[in-house]
Write a structure and sequence with these properties.
The complex is a heterodimer of chains A (about 190) and B (about 400). By secondary structure, chain A is of the alpha+beta class. Chain A is built from ten helices and six strands, in the order H-E-H-H-E-E-H-E-H-H-H-H-E-E-H-H. Chain A has helices at about 5-15, 25-35, 40-50, 75-95, 105-115, 115-125, 125-130, 135-150, 170-175, 180-185, and strands at about 20, 55-60, 60-65, 105, 150-155, 160-165. Chain A is globular and about 60 Å long. Chain B is about 65% helix and about 5% strand. Chain B is built from 18 helices and five strands. Chain B has helices at about 5-15, 20-25, 35-40, 45-55, 70-80, 90-105, 110-150, 150-185, 185-190, 195-245, 250-255, 255-260, 280-285, 285-300, 315-320, 330-340, 345-350, 360-375; strands at about 35, 60, 65, 380-385, 390-395. In chain B, the strands form two sheets. A three-stranded antiparallel beta sheet of chain B has the order 1-3-2. In chain B, strands 4-5 form a two-stranded antiparallel sheet. Chain B is elongated and about 170 Å long. The termini of chain B are far apart. The chains are: A alpha+beta (about 190), B mainly alpha (about 400). At the A-B interface, strand 2, strand 3, helix 4 and helix 9 of A face helix 10 and helix 12 of B.
């Protein structure tokens, strides 16, 4: 079985719980993506990682790792998922079209907060995930968290512009897979 | 209301007020062109503005002015900047073609017949151009709406309406096609006119192009609508889930536990650390590693100087020089003398006049030292002699 020369690099990224996205701003990551995308390579990598208990998963324009068995407790997963729900809710309130390929800068969000009370309340709600008091600090912390998990990337250092990566779709898919019973859905106010 | 009496008057008026009209046309989107601004552009001559208003070139609306719709549409169409997609033109034109064909057949006078034919050709040319323009406008409108409309609901409705227009245009294309190839076959067969044939061919080409474009537009609209649906689905779902979460009933009322239990993605795990030990070999041999060690050693210096215990002063007694003498035998010198003398070595050493008194044992030692050190210069024989219970080999210089 022949695995690509970049296998170690791929493992390094994915085992940290990060994604490899097709629309990354880093040309190296894009290269890794195109290597993994080839059927032969993908199959070989799958087999290779399977032998060390990782499952290589393919999403829409992104790759990530999952495991064959449970490694973390359900509580931790719930905690992480709740944090994502809050953050996503905030970002989607900022802009409905906040999704893969979207570009923004922290200052845009700050400007909006001044005129959008709903957004401000939601940002206040994010305090508990960040432990910060000042709005710019909270936003910075959130963006840093998203960046660490490779959902967004700093695209332009000078204008401080971020780009949302394809991996953001993973979060969207996760939200879509949660099933709300019909009768309960009717009780939720518009 | 006055009207222009002839085309010359119209054109000269438009020419005279070109500055004002250009400016107003540029700002037609804002719908708030002030009367005062207009005055500035006509040298503060109120009569000139009134003249335009009287002839319905511009309309006044309280304190504001706007170009009359008729003129605005004319400008937009001629300059190809209109945004509205108006399919009624095509419809009208198709009707007019039908009527003119009817007149053509019923007209016995050749000259007037020819006039009808000319009208028909003109209309066909127009149909082609208008349809193509409409298709281009439609495509641009769809893209602008998708990219620029911030409100999801409006965006969706707008796109759906544009989709309806697309259907209408393709219906009209079909009608035109039918008109040319089926309905009025007699006319096209009987009116043998080279130019008409050319116009028709041109029109057919244009319509084919439009049809292809429309198919592509349809694909695009479907794609856009799907994207919108996907996005609004997510937004909606997210809002509901957030609501339930804030009510603390998300876990009890939905299957989030099951979903997450089944999801073993590495993303949920805390960032792993691999505390591997450094290779000792590497630490001991690599220069770079040594540099790092020094760097870290400097960094972790605590700044607290450990107090070293002070020793007592060394007494002068220890510092006094004491002389101890020892006799050193210069083996080199002994060897040189021996090589010159030529006696057997043992005898020679025994009788050698050293500066100090040297014991027999010491002399034996010197013998041994000489033999071992200068073996190459001596000839060691197999003859042995004995003296004072010591057996020794006879050694001569070479």
């Amino acid at each position: 079985m022949e695995v690509p020369a970049q296998t170690a690099e791929i493992f390094e990224i994915l085992s940290k719980g990060q994604f490899i996205c097709s629309n990354s701003t880093d040309s190296n990551i894009r290269k890794l993506y195109s290597i993994m995308e080839e059927d032969q390579n993908f199959d070989n990598l799958c087999d290779c990682f399977k032998s060390i208990n990782f499952i290589l998963e393919k999403g829409e324009e992104y790759f990530y790792f999952s495991r064959t068995e449970l490694k973390v407790s359900l509580e931790r997963k719930i905690e992480v998922a709740f944090r994502w729900i809050d953050i996503m809710d905030f970002l989607k309130t900022y802009d409905n079209s906040f999704s893969s390929g979207y570009r923004f800068s922290p200052s845009d969000i700050l400007v909006r907060i001044k005129t959008d009370a709903e957004l401000e309340t939601k940002l206040e709600g994010l305090k508990r995930h960040t432990g910060k008091e000042r709005y710019p600090d909270i936003i910075d912390r959130i963006l840093q968290m998203l960046e660490n998990d490779s959902y967004i990337e700093l695209e332009n250092q000078i204008s401080h512009t971020y780009k949302v990566l394809a991996s953001f779709k993973y979060l969207e898919q996760l939200i879509l897979t949660i099933n709300i019973p019909e009768d309960l859905r009717n009780e939720i106010p518009e | 209301m006055n009207t222009f009496s002839n085309i010359k008057e119209l054109i000269s008026t438009l020419y005279r007020e070109q500055r004002l009209l250009t400016e107003m046309f540029k700002k037609r989107k804002f719908l708030s062109y002030k009367y005062d601004f207009a005055l500035d552009l006509v040298d503060n001559d109120d009569n000139r503005v009134q003249y335009l208003i009287e002839r319905s070139v511009i309309r006044s609306n309280g304190n504001f002015l706007e170009i009359d719709d008729q003129f605005q549409q004319f400008f937009e169409q001629v300059l190809e900047v209109n945004e509205e997609i108006n399919i009624s033109y095509i419809n009208e034109n198709i009707e007019s073609v039908r009527q003119n064909i009817l007149y053509y057949f019923n007209e016995p006078n050749e000259t007037r017949k020819y006039n009808y034919l000319r009208l028909i050709k003109n209309t066909f040319r127009k149909i082609g151009i208008i349809t193509l323009r409409n298709v281009v406008d439609l495509k641009r409108n769809i893209e602008t709406t998708f990219k620029n409309e911030p409100n999801y609901k409006i965006k969706k409705v707008k796109l759906e309406n544009l989709d309806k227009k697309r259907v209408d245009i393709s219906l009209l294309i079909e009608q035109t096609d039918k008109l040319i190839s089926e309905d009025e076959e007699t006319f096209f067969k009987s009116a043998l006119d080279e130019e008409l044939n050319r116009v028709i061919t041109q029109l057919k080409l244009q319509l084919a192009k439009c049809t292809h474009n429309l198919i592509d537009i349809e694909k695009q609209i479907i794609d856009f609508l799907n994207q919108i649906k996907y996005q609004s689905n997510i937004t909606e779902k997210l809002r509901q889930i957030k609501y339930l979460k804030d009510q603390f009933i998300l876990q009890t009322n939905t299957d989030i536990d099951a979903v997450l239990s089944g999801n073993n993605a590495a993303i949920f795990e805390p960032r792993p650390l691999y505390p591997l030990k450094l290779s000792l070999d590497y630490l001991q041999t690599d220069a770079e590693a040594f540099d790092s060690i020094k760097k870290i050693a400097r960094r972790i210096q605590t700044g607290i100087g450990t107090k070293r215990p002070l020793a007592d002063i060394i007494s002068d007694e220890y510092l006094e020089t004491q002389v101890e003498e020892d006799v050193q035998i210069n083996l080199e010198e002994v060897k040189n003398s021996f090589l010159a003398a030529g006696n057997n070595l043992f005898e020679f050493v025994l009788n050698y006049p050293f500066a100090e008194e040297v014991s027999f044992d010491r002399r034996v030692t010197i013998y041994c030292q000489l033999v071992s050190q200068y073996e190459a210069l001596f000839e060691i024989t197999d003859h042995y002699m004995q003296r004072e219970e010591i057996e020794f080999a006879m050694v001569y210089p070479k």
